Amino acid sequence: RQCVVVEQYRKCLLHLILLSACSLLFLPFDLMLANVLLTLPQPPTITHQSPKDFIIDPRENILIYCEAKGKPHPSFSWTRNGTHFDVEKDSKVLMKPSSGTLVIDISGEKAEAYEGIYQCTARNEHGTAVSNNIFIRQSRSPLWSKERKEAIMVQVGVSLVLQCGPPAGLPPPIIFWMDNNFQRLPQNTRVSQALNGDLYFSNVLLDDTRNDYICYARFPHTQTIQQKQPITVKVLDSNPSGERRPSFMAPLGRSSTQMALRGGVLELECIAEGLPTPEVSWYKESGDLPSSRMSFHNFQKTLKIADVMEADAGDYRCTAKNSLGSAHHTIKVNVKAAPFWISAPRNLILAPKETGILTCRVSGDPKPQIAWSVNGVPIKDSPKDTSRKVEDDTVILSDVQTGSSAVYQCNASNEFGYLLANAFVNVLAEAPRVLTPPNNVYQVITNNPAFLDCASFGSPIPTITWLVHLTSILNRDPYVIHNNGTLEINVAQSLNSGKYTCIASNNLGTRENHVYLEVKEPTRILAQPEYMVVQRNRKAVFECKVKHDPTLIPTMNWLKDNGELPDDERFLVDTDSLTINEVTEEDEGTYTCVMNTTLDQDSASAMLTVVEATPTPAIVYEEPDPPTDLELTDQRERSVQLTWIPGDEHNSPTQIQYEDLLHQAGVWHNLTEEEGTKTTAHLDLSPYAYYSFRVLAVNHVGYSQPSQPSRQYRTNPAAPDVNPTDVHGVGTEHNNLVISWKELTGLQSNGPGLQYKVNWRQKDVEEDWLSETVANASKYVVSGTPTFVPYEVKVQAVNDYGNGPAPEAVVGYSGEDVPMSAPESVQVLVQNGTLAEVHWEPVLTSMVRGRLQGYKVSYWRERSLHQAEAQQEEQQVLLFSGNRTDGRLPGLKPYSLYTLNIRVVNGKGEGPPSPNHNFETPEGGEGPHSDSYCCWIDSLYMETRCFISNELGPVEEMMFPANETTVILADLKYSTRYKFYFNAKTIKGSGPTITEEAVTIMDEVRPIGPAFTNVNSSVVGEEGAVISWEYFGPDKNVYVEYIVENSKEDWTKECVNGSSGSQTHLIKGLKPGTSYRVRLVVKDHSEATIHSTEELVITLPAMKSDQVDLATQGWFIGLMCAIALLILVLLIICFIKRNKGGKYPVKEKEDAHQDPEIQPMKDDDGTFGEYSDTEDHKPLKGSRTPSNGTVKRDDSDDSLVDYGEGGDGQFNEDGSFIGQYSGKKEKDTHEGNESSEAPSPVNAMNSFV
């Protein structure tokens, strides 16, 4: 069955394809159509390209995408900065085969050499398509300018601003403040960070005194972190500031202005000072704040509005208030818009001498300027074409000719951006082809509509005609020829059976196809099962005799209460009956016989009532006699009055039925019921129906035989009273929207020519409703939609007499596509040997491209840490539903290496995986605890209760969800007996209690396996070292001990945090140039060592050359003496030669062989260079500085680095630094501003921003 294709859609999609993209296409048609299209010539179409603004990583090869299709396959070329880019002449540039994608190898090259604006051109003999202008820029992370900060002195209570002033990077850096222990500085309503990175104090306290306010800048694209010089703040209380009303620190004044772009994010900020600390609130003067897109941040000081719209323009007032008063600031927001599509130009396929229109409808603020090009050349510069007319956003092509195919480009731009679209015009001359398979046989039941397909294509569009018995069929009752060539027979009768011929013709030829129609007799139940009252242990028999078309194979099914019959041998199913032997009370119910064929079905039901057997003679129950003498009176447009004479057993309730001879002849429907005392009924009718009525009487035995039908009563046609129900909008592909509905019945049509007007438009977008009218369909496909956007849809019934009521709009979504990106910032927190937590940053909604189902975590065990060779096990998968950012991985094996990755999942499928992330589980411990007492608890809904007590302590109560059966009890006392009481609890109360006793281990009994793992060390400067480890023991007395190597002194001991998990400790005050032995130990209450790690040897670097007294070094004294002696010998020889009259050309040799490395000690201004402490220029160990000229040696490169070597660094969720700093500083002697490619700890910093 095909949908109706209107003229506008016909020309827009393929222009020559009558089949169209309707929802009920048969699959063979699609395959045949696809095969035909592959043989047709087609101008190029760009299918994939890189984004307009493309920021590259200078450490990786540059990949610029350009993919296109066409027939023949297009060739590709590039321009850079407006001039031809000869790919073949550059050995570093490779173009992929059969593609325009460029791969630029920048190894050994400067990435900035390939910066610029690139544009790809795809051409074949039918036209030229161009890509967007792709702006290639390399990411930059410049260093902080060097500055010396004086201590800031402030009085208690005054306001303060600590400026960050980060260097401008590409993209801009993310700012955060920490102290020199890598702890994030706490922020609250009094102290907060502004959008520009500055740290604001509404009023200062004495506790704010410190010398390590450090601003950090993280450049996410290059994974580089830079730090500013620490700022010292001293708060004095000699002249404290008193309480005062609020005033604004940012922005200043009573009002300000801010501009936002449509579709972007608007961030408004108000930071106030005052004492007491003021609270900030927001409201919009000209309307309500958009609650669904609005959020508050930074302790109400920042108002963030996502997906900005024109309605968001206006005045926003922020109010700062404390107990002494309030202050106000008004921010006037102006909303501008880069160009956005209202209707992009679409491809056209035209026949010779036809006319086509390309439309490029855009909007924006300011209004975009539209420029047209053809085959990449501006139309104003291309050869004049009299068949082409340009009118602003429209190109009209008249009387096109074969060979005039081309690709047109529409460029709409304003000061905020541009849009570029390619649309080809393909001029084809094709003879007709019929896609419907020949000799198709269509079967339909009598009095139902029949649809015979004639799917075809050609250029010009073929004309479709139909023949039956060699007679031409006209488009009139009972035939309807749809625009897509389908022949509809409204009410098929047996005389309509036979051979039909469809003919498709245009000026290039004619094709015909034959199909066959078979009209079958309907399936009808002649003898229906009747209501029965049967005594218990007797037999019940239901009859169901059926008439059906002899060419159709029937299938009889019996149901009890709309379910399957009981699996009981007492139930016997025969060809036309159901027998129940020895009935019981459980057999009571409604029994239905259902007769199915391949085309239709019929069913009938009856009730069975089971009564007790009685010794008294049974009363014989009979059904009443049928009513007689039906008469129609008071005949109106929508109603009629029916009267009758009751049969025997008067006062029996009556059932009135009707038959619609126009729409469903032979089918009787229940209309209404009346009390047994009534003999007249007022019947409400529907328009456009041929009614006949009959009446049945009913008692507790069953229905009477129906009365004789009344005379026929016809109602006049009218406009529909109702619209289709169950309207839905759901996409099946990433670029379509399927609008479906439940069709009206023939009785609901109210008149001939029933059709459905389908309306749709994108939600929250100012555009007109689009509509399409279809007939005999229950859905319609809208193609070319954006991926997963909301649409408003509505469906209205129309017929030849008017439209139905105004329909209500429902919201649906266009089709989903697989997600485009993977979760980022994946971190794993190992809880113990069998459990780990994984955290990630959620994927942006725009990259999910569908309805978020959740996140799929795939993980597998690579090997045991006892084994060197990999023994990868089967992959395990967990799906965390919803917009989760973390999950737990249970059932891990201790002391193993695991790998995991994460994908986002939507309704269409899975996105790409995140990079594989490795983690290790610690060794597991053994103990006397039963498995029944081990679990983790993370639920807030608890149903199982556990009471714990020891011999001396009170009872403690814990509650768990019903689906958890184990728990771990930590921090218990050694050598202590505990008693456990368990019971279950529901809303009705607690169940019985069971008990169990257990004794904790003795002090000297320790868990098997090492208490410490992953012990590492790294040097920090010249006088410090960082020790990191993971600890899993129960004892809390953990110490770091160190001693000078080969020394006989006692170990120096420093107490550290004894909690389980990853820990770090900084040892300060070590001697430069000295080697130390370091170990971790655990002691019991008597200071006896329980656990001890292997000793690490740490060697601190010697003092810098400017701090070492070379004059006291023996090797230096000996070297100087040798040089002095050599110079003395040379001077004596020169003196002797001069006295003899000889000439020693020292000056000439110096002039001829001047050493290029010799540089004056003075700067250009004639003064000696100022001393610069190398500690001020230490980049973060492992940070990657781009290989470009953005890192200048005269700037400061203060960073978090050069404090040590070792494993990757991590941060806790509260921002504290864990682990070691990693990496190794390397400097190329010729590229002083190049940084190494060592591993970076920056991933650890991602938890802050």
UniProtKB/TrEMBL annotation:
Boundaries of every Ig-like domain copy: 44-131, 142-232, 246-334, 339-426, 432-518, 522-609
Compositionally biased region (Polar residues): 1235-1249
Fibronectin type-III domain location: 626-718, 720-817, 822-924, 1011-1102
GO cellular component: axon; plasma membrane
Keywords linked to the UniProt accession: Cell adhesion, Cell membrane, Developmental protein, Differentiation, Disulfide bond, Glycoprotein, Immunoglobulin domain, Membrane, Neurogenesis, Phosphoprotein, Repeat, Signal, Transmembrane, Transmembrane helix
Intracellular or extracellular location(s): Cell membrane
Gene Ontology biological process terms from the UniProt entry: axon guidance; brain development
Chain residue ranges for the region called Disordered: 1145-1249
Principal cellular location given in the protein's record: membrane
SMART domains linked to this entry: FN3 (SM00060), IG (SM00409), IGc2 (SM00408)
Membrane topology: Single-pass type I membrane protein
A GO MF label: cell-cell adhesion mediator activity
InterPro entries for this protein: FN3_dom, FN3_sf, Ig-like_dom, Ig-like_dom_sf, Ig-like_fold, Ig/MHC_CS, Ig_I-set, Ig_sub
Biased composition (Basic and acidic residues): 1145-1165, 1223-1233
TM spans (from-to): 12-38, 1114-1136
Similarity comment: Belongs to the immunoglobulin superfamily. L1/neurofascin/NgCAM family.
Protein name per the record: Neuronal cell adhesion molecule a
